[in-house]
Design goal:
Shape: globular
Order of helices and strands: HHHHHHHH
Radius of gyration: 19 Å
Helix content: over 70%
Distance between the termini: 60 Å
Length: 243
């Protein structure tokens, strides 16, 4: 059982360590990183408080068979409740956090929350299918957990823009911090769900991997963009100190 638990959480921790090491200008305190990660686990439980009523009210069904039902399941059963829960937890964590003082911090802390969510979700999936936990663990380590990381980078990118960017665009960036990850999450889950019942499974999976590559490339650009802003600000600060 311990090996299964370890297999479930290690991929998320590995990516967490990667993003922590990439924050090389002013590294966040480990205590803050760990706190955000465990709050991300809490967001996984909070998302169930949103998805369960939506399921009960008929917004989606677990036994989807049509294209519309799969799309509703992808959005109302996964993307909307999960990304909303993660964003609420992230905003609560950052609201009065003195360490949230750089553009790239939004991405770092969002990644911590997203990976905490992914870790606990992975535990559920692996223990749900103990007979196939190795296969499920490998697939999710290379697909689902990185995907949650990509969603989180997108969320953190817009959260930082909302907090540190033009005040006139604060509301718009706040909306994008939720809408963009939800769209990506829906587009991620939909072809996977459809591929289980569709005759065009190959084409759907081709689109899925195209989206996966797009998210990876975009996440890198988002991080580098905020990192460059912070580096420039830090350079200007050092110049003013020397003057």
């Amino acid at each position: 059982m311990f090996i299964v638990l370890l297999a479930a959480v290690l991929p998320a921790i590995a990516i967490l360590y990667f993003i922590y090491r990439k924050d090389d200008l002013r590294t966040e305190p480990p205590k803050q990183i760990v706190s955000a990660f465990f709050l991300g686990m809490l967001s996984a439980l909070a998302s169930m408080l949103i998805s369960t009523p939506l399921n009960y009210l008929g917004f989606f069904t677990e036994e989807a068979s049509t294209t519309g039902e799969h799309l509703a399941h992808a959005f109302f059963g996964a993307a909307f409740p999960e990304e909303l829960a993660k964003l609420v937890i992230l905003w609560m964590f950052l609201r009065k956090n003195a360490y949230f003082d750089e553009w790239v911090d939004g991405i770092v802390y969002a990644a911590c929350v997203g990976l905490g969510f992914a870790a606990l979700e992975n535990v559920f999936y692996l223990f749900e299918d103990l007979d196939e936990w190795v296969t499920v663990g490998i697939l999710r380590a290379f697909m689902s957990i990185p995907a949650h990381f990509f969603f989180a980078v997108t969320m953190g990118y817009f959260v930082s823009r909302a907090c540190f960017g033009d005040y006139e665009k604060h509301r718009w960036n706040s909306i994008l911090a939720l809408v963009c990850p939800m769209i990506l999450h829906t587009l991620y889950d939909f072809p996977l769900m459809m591929s289980e019942t569709s005759e065009i499974a190959g084409s759907l999976l081709f689109l899925f991997f195209g989206l996966y590559i797009f998210m990876a490339v975009k996440s890198k650009k988002f991080y580098l963009a905020h990192h460059a802003v912070d580096a420039e600000a830090m350079g200007q600060s050092e110049d003013s100190d020397q003057a």
